[in-house]
Design goal:
Length: about 110
């Protein structure tokens, strides 16, 4: 769904939402892949050598990925707002047309 949104929409906000949907799916996939059925959280309260624990590394890496994702999303939103102030639109096609027109004027 996220890839479809990125590929079919020209609104930059919608593209950013599509990217966030894809990121969320990837994070869920890796957290689910790191889970072990019947595994316990690796917090050692008592000595239980027969217990199966899940690997905390997957969750830690995904948490880091989420933090980076939020930071990149905030930066992208700031760039989109800046583009709107400059061009008066958030439509990627219209911005490309405006840039092309300006480039053609400068080449004359």
């Amino acid at each position: 769904m996220g890839a479809f949104t990125v590929l079919t929409r020209s609104n930059l906000f919608k593209k950013l939402i599509g990217i966030n949907i894809m990121e969320g799916g990837i994070f869920l996939f890796f957290v689910a892949a790191g889970n072990i059925k019947g595994g316990a959280v690796p917090i050692l309260v008592e000595n239980n050598p027969g217990m199966t624990y899940i690997n905390p590394l997957t969750s830690a890496l995904m948490l880091t990925g989420i933090v980076v994702s939020v930071s990149v999303t905030a930066f992208a939103l700031a760039l989109i707002i800046r583009l709107y102030k400059i061009y008066g639109t958030v439509d990627a096609r219209r911005i490309a047309e405006m840039r092309k027109e300006v480039k053609e004027r400068w080449q004359e």
